[in-house]
Amino acid sequence: MVVVVPEGALLIDCGGSPVQKLRRAGVDPQALVSVVITHIHPDHVYGLPALVRNLAVLGRQAPLTIHCRPEHVEPLRSLLSLFSTLERPGMFALTVRAIGLAEDAHAFDLGPLSVRTSPNEHGAMPNFAVRVDATRGRSVVYSSDTRPCDAVVALARGADTLVHDATYSERDRGRAGGHAHSTAEEAGEVAARAGVRRLILTHIGAEYHDEVDALAEEARKRFAGEVEIARELVPYPL
Question: Among residues 34, 50, 51, 142, which one has the fewest Cβ atoms lying within 10 Å of its Cβ?
Fold first, then answer.
């Protein structure tokens, strides 16, 4: 997910081909100021070396900050070093910075954006949710790869939009719990408790890609607001 303001862009998690996808979405990759890595499962981080290397090839000179949990600073530095992207001659300044671990912790600001975080629940993998508030606009909360949890409800309270894990259908709730993910209906429960206006279901399991409308209906059983399915490269004005 990328959030764009005139002062720059914030990328949250980094899957494959990030520069190409940013361009297809109409976002200048050089506008990136910060990258947030919520956790280090491969689908959320494997594109990071390619992002950094491609920005360097494109002639980037501006610094870039990567924000992550404290225990993930060294693994991310090791990942970047594996591809020789940390200490290359002429490389732009690249900082890997730890966030605070308290609930609703202020992480950083980007122009009119205030970024706050809270730990969520993803089993043995430390993870966190992200809230982005605009000074003169609305707010969005992103919590992928998580069980339903009170910390995310609190972080999302009163936000306009919640982007929440919906890896499983309700018929597979047992599997969701065992793998530390959520069902679409559970995502709806979190959205209802938080009082958001809109819920966007994300991280939907591949086995459900032909039944995403049914997952949206499951969420609507618990949440009376707007429910959408996350779509790649689709803008969501805030």
Answer: 50
